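> call design_seq(struct)
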């Protein structure tokens, strides 16, 4: 993705994107309908129902979405009796009140031609929630990208741990979840909708959807997802306070969903600018992705020689250096072979690396009750386990597919 640092200014309490789009046209209310427009984006918010529609170039893309928060009980914006609004620069805030309920504030930031940002704040006393969403859509066929030749949903993994999950463009007529961001698009025309979080410090964001007939019947863009794919065995932690806020979400549409993903990337960097790096790009080789458990002295030496002969001389290096790393199962090599391997790498102008995790216990949960933590005369590994709500050891913390045979 393309990343760019954007300027800030404008709306109090928010970092606002500076872009080629013009200013938000003055919102207008006709009866109970509040219209907000900027560039190709139009939001129609029905102040009598608490539901909103998203239009792109006057074509309806998302129907009847609203905000929701699980405060035990679950509350939604469309049960409130009063909805009022204010505008400041490119930010429109809809405030919902009702007797006996905390105040809900929905914020819409419209300063891009093809997208908008939205967030939900709930204001009360001693609030707590594990689930908040500024965009809950449960209207049959309510997400319609308007093009149906090869309609897909982009599934984005939360991370790459455990080698259990990967990027995928699956059919849209499924029930599934993506993490942090997703796109719903026609792979032929490239028309597509992109939704995702641009703030990531407090919540794990999920995009849950149900689709049929090449449209979505449910789409929740929310903070609070947990699953085996986020490496969690317990519910999302509680967010607490007198004011609690959902993630700020990006919603955008375009004739090429890949360009909308670029816009999403830019929106992210407005909240957390990319780190400046003036160094080179490390180049190297890791044994796991070729040999895994079968790495040995001969194939490791062959890799070093191949990279020296074929790549380093063709500018595959980092300021003259290449890295040759032995991952798990490096103990297939004897101590003398390890030394010869390191010498070979140094002769070839390479730096030799090895896989080692002194902070990880590779035994079973039962073994950890007897084995002492390395370097500690007092504590056993079982004292350091992360545990589930019932007190059991969290399985992924005491076992792994990577089990190196460490020589004594």
């Amino acid at each position: 993705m393309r990343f760019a640092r954007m300027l800030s200014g404008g709306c109090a309490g928010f970092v606002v994107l500076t872009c080629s789009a013009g200013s938000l046209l003055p919102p207008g209310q006709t009866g109970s309908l509040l219209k907000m427009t900027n560039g190709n984006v139009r939001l129609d918010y029905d102040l009598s129902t608490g539901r909103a529609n998203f239009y792109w170039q006057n074509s309806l893309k998302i129907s009847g979405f609203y905000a929701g928060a699980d405060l035990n009980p679950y509350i939604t914006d469309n049960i409130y009796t009063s909805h009022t609004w204010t505008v400041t620069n490119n930010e429109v805030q809809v405030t919902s009140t009702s007797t006996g309920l905390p105040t809900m504030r929905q914020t819409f930031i419209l300063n891009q031609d093809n997208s908008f940002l939205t967030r939900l704040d709930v204001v009360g006393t001693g609030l707590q929630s594990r689930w908040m969403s500024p965009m809950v859509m449960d209207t049959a066929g309510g997400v319609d990208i308007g093009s149906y030749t090869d309609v897909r949903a982009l599934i984005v993994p939360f991370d790459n741990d455990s080698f259990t999950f990967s990027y995928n463009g699956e059919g849209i007529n499924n029930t599934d979840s993506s993490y942090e961001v997703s796109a719903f698009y026609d792979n032929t025309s490239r028309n597509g909708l992109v939704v995702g979080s641009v703030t990531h410090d407090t919540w794990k964001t999920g995009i849950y959807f149900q689709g049929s007939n090449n449209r979505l019947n449910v789409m929740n863009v929310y903070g609070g997802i947990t699953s085996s794919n986020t490496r969690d065995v317990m519910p999302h932690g509680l967010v607490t306070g007198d004011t609690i806020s959902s993630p700020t979400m990006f919603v955008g549409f375009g004739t090429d969903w890949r360009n909308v993903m670029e816009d999403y990337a830019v929106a992210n960097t407005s909240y957390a600018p990319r780190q400046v790096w003036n160094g080179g790009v490390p180049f190297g080789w890791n044994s796991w992705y070729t040999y895994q458990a079968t790495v040995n002295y001969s194939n490791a030496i062959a890799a070093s020689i191949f990279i020296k002969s074929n790549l380093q001389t063709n500018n595959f290096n980092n300021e003259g250096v290449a890295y040759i790393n032995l991952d798990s199962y490096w103990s297939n090599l004897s101590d003398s072979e390890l030394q010869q391997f390191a010498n070979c790498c140094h002769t070839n102008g390479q730096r030799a690396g090895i896989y080692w995790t002194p902070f990880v216990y590779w035994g079973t949960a039962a073994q950890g009750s007897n084995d002492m933590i390395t370097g500690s005369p007092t504590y056993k590994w079982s004292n350091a386990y992360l545990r589930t709500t019932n007190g059991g050891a969290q399985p992924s913390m005491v076992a792994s597919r990577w089990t190196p045979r460490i020589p004594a």
